[in-house]
TrEMBL record:
InterPro entries: IS402-like_dom, Transposase_6_like. It holds the Pfam family DUF4096. This is Insertion element IS402-like domain-containing protein. The lineage of its organism: Bacteria, Pseudomonadati, Pseudomonadota, Alphaproteobacteria, Acetobacterales. It comes from the Bacteria. Residues 10-82 form the Insertion element IS402-like domain. Coiled coil: none annotated.
């Protein structure tokens, strides 16, 4: 049976994403042993449009993923990760040109929220949709 984390990142996909994440992440705050679980939680949440509190318990406490997402948004980590991924997969950079892939929330018509996570939300949602694209394909 496939675990929830493996449904987000296969072992092959994680082997590609982990070094990219390690290059851009701030050191010290998130232990490496929990990194896959936490990143999987963040990507799962953005793939499914769920609220943070709706994260399955397999991903650990919801607030850890939420805190990491917000902290990394403010530090520009998601933008740096996107730049790394885009350099590896030129097609992923083109995703931003197609507005039909972005579902707008009903509150999207208002002014920007405090905290500056809007751009990071979009980057993570689009990156999550293309997790397997970076993994090498077996023949």
């Amino acid at each position: 049976m496939m675990s929830m984390m493996q449904s987000v990142f296969s072992d092959t996909a994680w082997s590609v994403w982990e070094p990219l994440i390690e290059e851009v992440r701030p050191k010290g705050k998130t232990p490496s042993k929990n990194l896959r679980r936490t990143i999987s939680a963040i990507f799962w949440r953005h793939q499914n449009g769920a609220k943070w509190r709706a994260l399955p318990s397999e991903f650990g406490p919801w607030w850890i993923a939420a805190q990491l997402f917000i902290r990394w948004s403010k530090l520009g980590v998601w933008q740096r990760l996107f730049e790394k991924v885009k350099d590896r997969d030129q097609d992923l950079g083109m995703v931003f040109l197609d507005g039909t892939t972005i579902r707008a929330h009903h509150k999207a018509a208002g002014a920007a929220k405090k905290g500056g996570t809007e751009n990071a939300e979009r980057i993570v949602r689009l990156s999550a949709a293309h997790v397997e694209d970076l993994a090498p394909r077996s023949a």
